[in-house]
Amino acid sequence: MTISGDIIQRKDFLLSANLTMGRNKMNVERLNGEDKELWTTSSRWKSSDNDFCLREGSEVGLICGYVYDGLYGFDEFVRDGFNYTAKEGTLNSDGIYGTAPGHPKFKDISGPDGVPDGIIDEYDRTVIGNTNPRLQGGFGISGQWKNFDFNANFVYMLKFDLLNATAYELSSAYNSSQNAPKNVLAKFSYDNCWIYHGDIYTTNADGSTYIYNLNEPLLSNS
User: Which residues make Cβ contacts (< 8 Å) with residue 88, sequence separation at least 6?
Assistant: First the structure.
């Protein structure tokens, strides 16, 4: 849809504006005649799972993964010294990020028999996003004053999903180490993250710091 018109029209001055909006929806009708779905992952980050799916009868641009359901809390475990044993009924995520206080938790959607089984694995992966904008278009203004003219045009896309690999890499423990932690985003600062007993950082004589002791139990989510 396009809307355009003159806002001001005078002898030596003209100002016009335009607005366009539309929606594109692309469905996969058929793949190669053999496969009903094809999977791929982005080459720009180190995902261990296929992130994108082309599936007959579905839209192009589907993002697949686990449905985030918060963090494991201490009330889901029995503490024995520095070890935490999951209570009965606590979802088992050992096959992905591990089952422990402070670790990410995901929804148990299905299992080998088609029903939730208490284990987070490949059967719990589902469509979690769509890269196609629900609405896209542009707007602009143009004008003329005596012998001068000007124009400015803008484009927009609304309500679409993206796979933020940068946020993942900068907030994940993956490939992180005791001397080089990767939680550099502000939302994972010392005041917002899970911490261990005692100060998490120790300062050396030269002013450098290192993580206190990763083997100590988690204290809380501050």
Answer: none
